[in-house]
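Fold it.
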Amino acid sequence: MADQISAAVRRRRDPASTREAILAAARALMAERGPEAMTISEVAHRAGVNRGTAYQHFRTRDELAAAVMHGFGQRLTAMLTEQSPVGERIDRFLAFFVEHPEFARLWIYDMLASPDGAPSDSWRVFVTTLEGFAQASDTQPGIDPEMLARILVGAPLFWSLWVQKSTVDDDDRRRAVARFAREIKRLLLFGVMKPEQWTSMVSELDGGEGAQ
């Protein structure tokens, strides 16, 4: 109880911390019930601030929901476009959504709510990235970047929520991530890439990583 009171006092003295607490509470509620079920009052209660304070930061529920999705979009875009080996990006992408299932739910809600079935800015960035990938000399001809994007997003998002129910502890979840990542890499390596030009990934799979 004392810790909660102390945290509330710190937030009152630190507007940035208060704003982040409100956003975190809103993110959790939106992930649980969808944006339409969220109220400023409930967000304020979960964040440990009074309703008036919440309204000082966000005048309407729509403004708060937009701020949540903007922050999520920035984080998602950074993750999708980071410069690192493909295998490492797959590992981090899967691990992130298993560790933060609320973000998986948010992205699913956003896709279902969008007229074209995809979150706007982040989705366009991801598809553009895959368009460049599909045109490279080390990938197979005839790739449909948009459909590939839906496969690479849809399966991991729903799987990351399912794995929360089917594993018992963190070690179990890490093993599940390794197994799923291995199969995603296999599908990419032998269906999208030219294996002879991706020798490091071939070696990783031949070494049996994640095959448990």
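The domain at 61-212 is CATH 1.10.357 (Tetracycline Repressor; domain 2).
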